[in-house]
Amino acid sequence: MKKVTITLGLLTALASGQALAVDQINAVHAFPPSLIYTQSFLEFVDKVNERGEGVVKINVRGGPEVIGLSEQPDAVRNGVVDMAYTAASFYAGTVPERDAMVASNTNAIYARENGGIDLLNEIHQEKMGTYYLGWFDSGVSYNFYTIEEPSIDEAGNLSVSGLRLRSNPVYDAFFQDYLGAQPISLPTTDVYAALERSVVNATGWTQIGLKDLNWDRFLNYRVDPAFFSTDMGVIVNLDKWNQLSEESQQILQEVAIEHERESAEKLADLAQEQQAQLEADGMQVVTLEGEAAQRFSEAARDSTWERMRRQMERHPSGLEHYDELIEKFNDL
């Protein structure tokens, strides 16, 4: 009987040791769970936890209610949390090279295959102390949305006169430098109330998620052409990454690369569906034509590249990788 007791105790100790051997990763996400982008991240988490059972597990702590969306990148950098699914624009001052994604005319599939994301990962490690795991939900463009019918000047350009334009770091260079707007900076979570109270009457947003946020209750017009690309991705504290087992690292990276492709393909189709649904529900489309449309599209890209140049010049490494990033994130 004594021998059995020792054997059971040993088995219990071994089981406990195996449980402790599982790499645990604490994660947060930038947006509420109702938003399609957060749902995409949670799908990634489920894939990791399924494939990594007994090896690695991601524990999602929550979203902006846990750590403010603009504070999440520093929380990862400082090791408060291990991982965040966030927009690279929230840490542009640290990694200005993120504008390569913002101004991209392609997606993560292209940038992963030609080494662009690996290069961005190297830059994140050097400048931020984080591991850039993947560019998720890429290739989804943005549009300009308004409550009232937007004004078009004699040259066919969009006029921002009279607009109370909501912005965030993604849009600022384009909205200010080209459109000449003086936008009101608001986090995503505050925009519904701002639209409802007419604090703002125009905003940029991606081609996906307007209904999820219920902003379509107020926004009645969309301006074409679209511009930019989403810059959502997953960053991991570098010290934490280096502490993970090789097997855990391999599982995380493999699943991330798979999810880059799957999310880009899935959201490309969804963007078309949601834009069509908004139009079916009454949203009207104002399309810039000819040279005005070309100026609009080029200005979104060029103003963002110029912002990247200015901000990179402030760092000790200067313009290293500037041209290479543009090449790797654009199908020129």
TrEMBL record:
Pfam families per UniProt: DctP (PF03480)
Cleavable signal peptide: 1-21
CDD domains in the record: PBP2_TRAP_DctP1
Keywords, comma-separated and alphabetical: Signal
InterPro entries: DctP_fam (IPR018389), TRAP_DctP_sf (IPR038404)
Name the record gives this protein: TRAP transporter substrate-binding protein DctP
Source organism of this protein record: Halomonas casei
Underlying gene: dctP
